[in-house]
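Predict structure. Chain length: 416.
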Amino acid sequence: MRSNGGAAGPGSLVRWVDLEDDQQYLCAGSTSEVNVSSVLWDISDGPATPDLSPGVDDSHDLLDLADSEIWEVMTTQLAGKSNISFETFWDEWFNLPLQNGFVTEMIALSDQVAIEYHEDLFEANDTAAAASFVALDGSPVHNTFFSDPEQDGEGASDTDFFLLPASSGIQYVAQTSGLLSDGNTTLQILDSDGSTPLATSTDRSASDPSSRIDWTAPRNDTFYIRVLHGTDIGIYGSYDLQISGQAPVDNDGDGHDTTTDCDDTDPAINPAAAEVCDGIDQNCDNVVDDGFDVDGDGFTSCGGDCDDSNANVNPAAAEVPANGIDDNCDGTIDEAAQMDVVTITRSTWKRGPGKLIVEALSDQQPQVTLTVEGFGPMTWNPDTSKYSYTSRNKTPNPGSVTVTSSGGGSATASVQ
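Prediction complete.
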């Protein structure tokens, strides 16, 4: 194939390509016009073709068809279509009504220039249930975006799933490279359910449609890697996948890596550290300040317990008068208990039935018990947030009532 730039005569040649040997332009994939032209040439090229190797043909070229086989695809199947690519030609070659066939021969021609329009060795791994296992050593694994369940040559879109048996705290890198024939990738790490994305990478940059994910496993489990064809005009192509598990790191240099160190940014925190009473889990046993609540009252010596040998002494304890101990750890020994303030809101005697009704409030309600002296205890009503007392019928009018609290306070009111 030669181009003279529109001029005639010596010195006008501006470029040349030998489609037989793919010389000068060593390309790969269907995005190269040279490669597409080379495949189209070899479909009708044969030993009798007047070229640089008369009488022989390439070992991979098993076809010697009439030019009309190509042109009927061009003129009947591609007419009226938009965004035409070699993908379009490929599918229409095998599609109805032409069904030109020669699947094996067409694959051999296109493979020669790395146009891989056929299933890869892992197919069909298009679901989590059918996910393929690959070594996690960073070795490249070659794949194609091409599904052909009917094995008739015509392709369909393809998604690839791979197993990721991961260990908690281990850092993994999954990446695609070597993208050919518009093999634009979208890479995902899925949770153990095989559907929930945990990490996604589309293009590494505006000029690089390959993908990379750096990810740390949250637990010991089997996760999945899903590779999809990125949004583009085409749906076919090929790519290499690499998965590697990086060794755990020790970021703080304390001799313990991320698999066991619960805070790998602080060298004072690791499984071998001594626990200090400070509200922090130094030894990574998931217990804060373990060993510093000797009396088992729920309070540590650094958490307000002023006597960790006595379970009756802690910030939640009630102060016991005249025992010479600071029971509630507020810094004061035997402080007087705060007197409850009682307020009588109603004291009524109903003449007809002879019934006494008393209602009251307390500063310490509802923890304290209120009692109508000479009559009996009052009842706490959470709906009205009040204490109440109702006597039996035929109770004489006492003239006044006194309500006492178990918290030490009292109040007196006349009966209305």
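Summary: The first strand starts at residue 2 and ends at 3.
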